[in-house]
Design brief:
This protein is an all-alpha fold. The protein is 77% helix and 1% strand. It contains 14 helices and two strands. A two-stranded antiparallel ribbon has the order 1-2. Helix 3 packs across helix 13, helix 4 packs parallel to helix 6 and helix 13 packs across helix 14. The protein starts with a helix and ends with a helix.
Length: 330
């Protein structure tokens, strides 16, 4: 029932986002355009080139971040853990800012590399951050979850400082682009970006779902999980590696959208209980809904100014994070 309700909210948001905006389109026109019944060039342009890829990008990014956030919180046994805390977002952001600084945000040409250059740099930066964090968090032949979080925070600060240093040396045009990207925005979502992150989600998300029961045992403690015959260290590494792959792919096309991996799992746990076989899918759907709604608000409520979706999410996420800290302290 909860999953059906989430899907209903996603469908409603999809409908509103597709039909409303600076150029309103009726439901009949949308259906005729999608089914290719007497297509109108203006409708094709608005739906297929602007709105639909942006909606799909937001949905995939939200789904990935929501699912990865639930896994990270479960594996680290830390309710305040978030994909951004691991420093992956900051690593991807620093790589993209470096790309904008040295190459002006694009490669010359019109091929696939020209389109995917920035996402590839973001993906490489996120994976590099993950490798460094893993190397520093590895101790005595095992990966310590608390050390992982502390290392992630330190690495995130370092990458953030590097990104800020480079952005301050940019020309005004590139600086504006870098600022928007670092704030988390999917305004430039396109079908090529979608195809670039889809394989990561199709490969890693099923693995996380298949290992959902293992997360329940890991939350009891590594000693308890090992006593039950579960190779805790190996499973923990697999779950974190898959989560890092999802986060890196999502951040490479959306920028630093934070708090999705924190808020969505918490809401899912309140609604679905403690079993991760129910938490993971619900958390992914809630993350999808959160990003889609935030992006719609960002591009319509503040029109003609368009805010990055990450700022809208932060407006909700920051008070919620403070509430969680207060509750944990109490």
């Amino acid at each position: 029932m909860l999953v059906l309700t989430a899907w209903a909210g996603i469908a409603a948001t999809f409908y509103i986002s597709l039909t409303n905006g600076a150029f309103d389109i009726s439901v009949g026109d949308v259906i005729r355009t999608l089914l290719r019944i007497h297509p109108v060039p203006d409708h094709d342009l608005v739906i297929f080139d602007f709105r639909l890829p942006r909606i799909v990008t937001g949905a995939l990014v939200g789904f990935g971040l929501g699912t990865a956030g639930a896994v990270i919180q479960g594996v680290t046994r830390n309710e305040l853990a978030d994909p951004g805390v691991l420093g992956i977002n900051a690593g991807a952001g620093a790589a993209v800012v470096a790309f904008m600084f040295f190459f002006g945000g694009t490669f010359n040409g019109s091929g696939l590399l020209h389109i995917l250059a920035m996402p590839l740099f973001g993906l490489a930066g996120g994976l590099l951050a993950a490798v460094l964090i893993y190397a520093f968090a590895w101790q005595n032949g095992r990966l310590d979850p608390q050390r992982l979080l502390l290392t992630g925070i330190a690495m995130g600060s370092g990458f953030g400082a590097a990104a800020m240093y480079l952005s301050l040396k940019m020309n005004p045009k590139d600086f504006e682009m870098a600022t928007v990207w670092l704030a988390g925005s999917i305004w430039n979502g396109n079908w090529t970006y979608i195809l670039s992150i889809l394989p990561w989600l199709l490969i890693t998300i099923p693995v996380l779902y298949y290992r959902a029961r293992v997360i329940d045992y890991l939350r009891l403690g590594e000693e308890t999980a090992t006593s039950l015959g579960i190779p805790a260290e190996r499973e923990k590494q697999l779950l974190l590696l898959c989560s890092i792959g999802v986060i890196s792919a999502c951040v490479s096309v959306s920028g630093n959208i934070g708090f999705v991996g924190l808020i969505a799992p918490h809401i899912a746990k309140r609604l679905a209980g403690t079993r991760h076989t129910r938490i993971l899918p619900l958390s992914g759907l809630l993350g999808m809904l959160l990003v889609m709604v935030s992006d719609f608000i960002a591009k319509t409520v503040f029109a003609p100014v368009e805010l990055p979706a990450g700022i809208v999410i932060a407006m909700v996420g920051t008070p919620y994070f403070v509430y969680l800290l207060y509750r944990a302290r109490a």
